[in-house]
Design a protein that fits this description.
By secondary structure, this protein is mainly alpha-helical. It is found in: Golgi outpost; Membrane. One of its GO terms (molecular function) is fibroblast growth factor binding.
Length: about 1050
């Protein structure tokens, strides 16, 4: 479609013959002399070229004369002859032009159509001048007048008769038709529709004028000044001036009329890529190679810029080779679509209301699109589904995930961040976006960049293909495992948003399960998961299901990126303590486990600790939230704990099963080994914070508020607080705390505070001890000189707790299993399952120990308890309970001592006569009674007599009062000289025992025997008893003989 010999003059009558030179005509002379340089006067083509680029041609007659001359020029066979001579070799190469009939004027039209393929310099120059002449008026373009006459009148696009306006106004007619064409595409039900023939003619004209902006007459006149301002050094031809002006379209100094003309042309390019000379030329071979313009597709689809971009981008993403020139052009036009929303008819059609309501006045530099993205994210209001879909389609067409520079708004907002945080990454690399996401909410991030980035990521997260790196690394896995199709193809069975979920499900499959992702794809899935954790809106499925609830419950409790800020806050901790597991490409829960284990390191900061605790609390809702626990115990849970979801309930269920199997010495544990190991980890983690044990927390909420309000939750401090004020707790809370202590005493490793405070001492004294014997080991080493004071204090606390109830001492409970019901059944009958016996059972066993009636194992354990409580009165709950007033009044100084070594007990013994309370007196007397049984339970006496025991009683085994009897015999033996302190203490004890014997008579034969053996008059008493026995024996003999004699006499009768 160019110059056509079939066009007829619209002048009335025959067209006038013109002289050889236009400068010789009176109507033209003045214009030629005034507007054209002198050297062009002798060349009519040069004069025409000069005059058609100005508007000041004199009068309608002069303009009409020029138009008539150009019409004759395009139809005169002489010019065809010149063209055949100048373009001889070119015509031979272009078969279509060689076949044109001679003398019809069609040859020049054909050469204009194929001018892009002309290589001869002279031919190219000639055809270029002829093209400029032809495109100066749409009526000179072959077929255009016939195709668009009705549309020109319908759209009221101006004059179709020469002389009514100046010849140059005819460029406005084409511009009017072009605007009508693009307006129709932007309306749902257009009132006026351009005919199909005229549409093709308009787009063909635009295509033919695509190489030289002079040929688009409307745009040329609208942008002449802007061209000089912005593109002065840009050489005309091959669409270079167009591209230059497009790049400056949103400059402040760009005139509005030029901007409007450029926008119209861009919209035509969006409808037909061939309207861009550079794009069509650069991508011609690639379009053919990848079948992006196959003949059987309707032109309206194959010519669309979006179709071309999607087709070629698909080839690039599949790893196919697309020429660098074509990729450069694609980049320019993708950027163009992102900069100006109005170039996408679907956006205008679908988002008109949203733009008017939320985004008016933000037309430039992609601001409108980002405003719409912000609306879609829910930050400024609601948006229609069609608008959201149109935006998603545009993002796929432009593919800014492949090169952040496509998104000008993002590029400008994030330039400073990229220069500082991402300077190590090549400009345009798709990893720039990932780098920006990694620095979201950090000090290097700026607010504007943050907003633009999240707005774009919102859409990228909804189509896995839009993350270029993810698609490149995972397209094989997605095709194999998720049955995906090509980059620009979709499937109803596997929509784009579901593909990532599919990849995620396969990322964590074990080798046994099979169908796993490749290593590099797993790493990318992990990267995406990390980035989506920054904002709930980057997780489409989560947002769809939870957005209403998020607004309802969390609007005032969360801020954007708060989760990520906590994650970033943990970076120093990760580098210090967890760098080995952090380097794993796929985190299988090891990193969080490491952070939990190091949550209370001094290097831990508050934000990280809060984040880790929050993660733990979330995990408690469902055991499947804990990846390692789920993978280790999934089968065990299904088999042993079906229908249980809460993590704490699952842990209790499995722990109970493990404990029962252990107690019953089962040959084979029902819980698998790998589950038992992970179960142990979960149990230990739950002990750190009372909130991780929901039942205990709920039962004690009011008590925490009343008594532990200012105590922090971490480090088991709340639990420790409740233990210390156990007697003041509400019944329900008290029961739960007792059960917790019972569990901890059975398995001291679950006692978080003990394990934390005594961590170093455990390493020193108990490195190989079994976890269940840990407290026992610590107790045995409690009085070591190198024992840490804080650990010693904590051990004492646990001993005090154990002595309140035999059930809290598993070792004693096992050793005295038979003795307790035998001797203390009356106490058991009054006992409750979940409240302490306040040491009553242990006191009962102590008395039986003094009577030497316990089994050997039980006796050994009671001896240890008596020895420990003899050194520290706090370990004897009955003594502390009944003698609290006496201790305060009589032994205050001893009780206040930092180190307890039996001072309080000795004080009470010395002041026995001053004690008025019967129950307290009884407890002190019991202590005296116990000390008779074994000197080891009387630390003051034992310390005073240690040397004498070594010298005089070394061969006597301890226990059952043997060494005490040895010392008493030594005291009576005049030949033995005891240490003065030992002698004094023994005499004191004899007096105490004498008093005790008076106020507390023996309760049994064994008690009586013990009193005799320890009495100062032992020999006298034994002599009297011996004489008495002998007298009784003699009396018995005599009575027996008399009885026999009487019986015989009776028989003899």
């Amino acid at each position: 479609m160019a110059a056509c010999g079939r066009v007829r003059s619209r002048w009335p009558g025959p067209a006038p013959l013109l002289p050889l030179l236009l400068v010789a005509l009176a109507v033209c002379r003045e214009d030629v002399l005034r507007l054209c340089s002198k050297h062009s006067w002798a060349n009519n083509l040069a004069v025409l070229e000069c005059l058609q680029d100005v508007r000041e041609v004199s009068g309608p007659r002069g303009g009409g004369l020029l138009w008539n001359y150009k019409l004759n020029l395009t139809t005169d066979p002489k010019f065809e002859s010149v063209a055949r001579e100048v373009c001889k070799s070119t015509i031979a190469e272009i078969k279509e032009c060689a076949d044109e009939p001679v003398g019809k004027g069609f040859l020049v039209s054909c050469l204009v159509d194929h001018r892009g393929n002309i290589t001869e310099y002279q031919c190219h120059q000639y055809i270029t001048k002829m093209t400029a002449i032809i495109f100066s008026d749409y009526r000179l373009i072959c077929g255009f007048m016939d195709d668009c006459k009705a549309d020109i009148n319908l759209l009221k696009c101006g004059s179709i008769r020469p002389g009514e306006k100046d010849a140059h106004s005819q460029g406005e007619v084409v511009a009017c038709l072009e605007k009508g064409l693009v307006k129709e595409a932007e309306e749902t039900n257009p009132r006026i529709q351009v005919s199909d023939q005229c549409k093709k003619a308009i787009l063909r004209v635009a295509e033919l004028s695509s190489d030289d902006f002079h040929l688009d007459r409307h745009l040329y006149f609208a942008c002449r000044d802007d061209r000089e301002r912005f593109c002065e050094n840009t050489q005309a031809g091959e669409g270079r001036v167009y591209k230059c002006l497009f790049n400056h379209k949103f400059e402040e100094s760009m005139s509005e009329k030029c901007r409007d003309a450029l926008t119209t042309r861009q919209k035509l390019i969006a409808q037909d890529y061939k309207v861009s000379y550079s794009l069509a030329k650069s991508c011609k071979s690639d379009l053919k190679k990848y079948r992006c313009n196959v003949e059987n597709l309707p032109r309206s689809r194959e010519a669309r810029l979006s179709y071309l971009l999607m087709c070629l981008e698909s080839a690039v993403h599949r790893g196919r080779q697309v020429s660098s020139e074509c990729q450069g052009e694609m980049l320019d036009y993708r950027r163009m679509l992102m900069e100006d929303f109005s170039l996408s008819p679907e956006i205008i059609l679908s988002c008109r209301g949203e733009i008017e309501h939320h985004c008016s006045g933000l037309h430039r530099k992609g601001r409108t699109l980002h405003c719409l993205m912000k609306v879609v994210r829910g930050e400024k209001g609601n948006v229609g589904l069609n608008c959201q879909q149109a935006l998603q389609t545009l993002i796929q067409e432009t593919d800014p995930g492949a090169d952040y520079r496509i998104d000008r708004a993002l590029n400008e907002a994030c330039e400073s961040v990229i220069q500082t945080a991402c300077k190590h990454i090549r400009s345009g690399d798709p990893m720039i976006l990932s780098c920006l996401m990694e620095h979201l909410y950090t000090e290097k991030m700026v607010e504007d960049c943050e907003h633009r980035l999240l707005e774009l990521q919102y859409f990228i997260s909804r189509d896995w293909k839009l993350d270029t790196v993810l698609y490149r690394k995972c397209q094989g896995d997605a095709s194999r495992l998720c049955h995906t199709h090509g980059w620009n193809e979709t499937s109803e069975l596997m929509p784009p948003g579901a593909v990532f979920s599919c990849l995620y499900r396969h990322a964590y499959r074990t080798e046994e399960q099979g169908r796993r992702l490749s290593r590099e794809c797993r790493a990318e899935v992990q990267r995406i998961l990390h980035q989506r954790a920054m904002d709930v809106k980057l997780d489409p499925a989560l947002q769809d299901k939870c957005m209403v609830d998020l607004g309802k419950w969390c609007s005032e409790k969360t801020e954007t990126g708060s989760g990520l800020q906590k994650t970033l806050a943990c970076e120093p901790i990760i580098q210090t303590f967890c760098h080995e597991v952090a380097d794993n490409q796929i985190d299988s829960g090891d990193l969080m486990e490491c952070l939990i284990q190091n949550k209370h390191q001094k290097e831990m900061n508050e934000k990280c600790a809060i984040g880790v605790t929050h993660f733990q609390l979330v995990q408690m809702k469902d055991f499947r939230f804990s990846y390692k626990f789920k993978m280790a115990c999934k089968e065990d849970v299904l088999k042993l704990c079906p229908n249980i979801k809460k993590k704490v309930d699952v842990v209790i269920c499995l722990s109970t099963t493990v404990r029962n199997d252990t107690l019953q010495d089962a040959k084979e544990h029902r819980v698998s080994l790998k589950c038992r190991k992970q179960l142990r980890v979960e149990e230990l983690e739950m002990t750190e914070d009372i909130r991780l044990e929901p039942e205990l927390y709920e039962a004690c909420k009011s008590d925490i508020k009343n008594y532990c309000q200012n105590v922090a939750y971490g480090n088991a401090q709340i639990i420790e607080c409740l233990k210390e004020i156990k007697k003041q707790l509400s019944s329900r809370c008290h029961q739960k705390v007792f059960k917790l202590q019972e569990t901890e005493m059975m398995d001291p490793e679950l006692d978080y505070t003990l394990m934390r405070v005594c961590k170093q001492m455990i390493k020193r004294f108990c490195p190989e001890a079994d976890s269940k014997n840990m407290l026992q080991c610590l107790k045995q080493n409690k009085n070591s000189e190198v024992m840490d004071p804080k650990c010693k204090q904590m051990i004492t606390k646990r001993q005090i707790t154990q002595n309140t109830d035999y059930r809290l001492n598993p070792v004693l409970r096992k050793a005295c299993k038979a003795d307790i019901p035998k001797f203390c059944q009356n106490i058991l009958n009054r006992a409750k399952d979940d409240t302490e016996l306040e040491g009553q059972v242990i006191s009962c066993l102590k008395l039986k120990y003094a009577d030497q009636r316990l089994s050997p194992d039980c006796e050994d354990q009671i001896r240890v308890i008596i020895q420990e409580s003899a050194l520290d009165y706090r370990l004897d709950p009955q003594l502390q309970m009944h003698c609290s007033e006496e201790i305060s009044s009589l032994c205050a100084e001893e009780a206040a001592a930092q180190e307890q070594t039996g001072q309080v007990e000795e004080c009470l013994k010395v002041n026995l006569l001053k004690i008025k309370a019967e129950m307290c007196k009884k407890e002190v007397l019991n202590m005296l009674k116990e000390s008779k049984a074994d000197i080891f339970v009387d630390p003051v006496l034992h310390t005073a007599c240690a040397l004498d025991i070594k010298h005089h009683c070394a061969a006597i085994p301890p226990g059952r009062g043997r060494q005490m009897s040895c010392l008493m015999e030594a005291l009576e033996d005049k030949r033995v000289r005891l240490q003065p302190e030992c002698k004094k203490r023994l005499n004191d004890r004899i007096e105490m025992w004498s008093y005790a014997a008076k106020v507390a008579p023996a309760e049994g034969f064994s008690d009586l025997a013990m009193q005799v053996m320890t009495s100062p008059s032992k020999n006298y008493i034994l002599s009297v008893i011996t004489v008495g026995i002998c007298v009784l024996f003699l009396i018995g003999l005599m009575c027996g003989r008399i009885t026999k004699r009487v019986t015989r006499e009776l028989k003899d009768r």
